Amino acid sequence: MQIYSVRWAPTCRHTVVSTGFDGKILVWDIRQHDRGPSVTYATSEFKTMFPVEFLAPNQVVAGVDRALVVYDVRTHDVRSRDDLEYDADSVLVKDRVVVAAHRQTLSTFQYMDTVQ
């Protein structure tokens, strides 16, 4: 397991999300760290994952293979995918607006509430 980025959940002080060069998004309950991640996202599509942030309490946005991908932590579904020209080096989130830095460029995306 190769962890690249880790972030705290916005509303749950014992939950973190991580991404790695192995192409996985992992959601962890730090009270049960010896059991491994509570949720794992991994598909053959993913090659590398870079930054990750919580977009909402049950959604994470990650830089994945030249795209920003929004995942629903509860349903394990991909909720949205927006292509980038390059891999994201960092991702910032505030009020459902995402700024992705990639190759000396900033891209912004605004996500509507996709919780059903």
Automatic annotation (TrEMBL):
Gene3D superfamilies reported in the protein's UniProt record: YVTN repeat-like/Quinoprotein amine dehydrogenase (2.130.10.10)
Keywords of this entry: Repeat, WD repeat
Repeat recorded as keyword: yes
Segments annotated as WD repeats: 1-31
KW Repeat (keyword) present: yes
InterPro entries listed in its UniProt record: WD40/YVTN_repeat-like_dom_sf (IPR015943), WD40_repeat_CS (IPR019775), WD40_repeat_dom_sf (IPR036322), WD40_rpt (IPR001680)
Protein name from the UniProt record: Uncharacterized protein
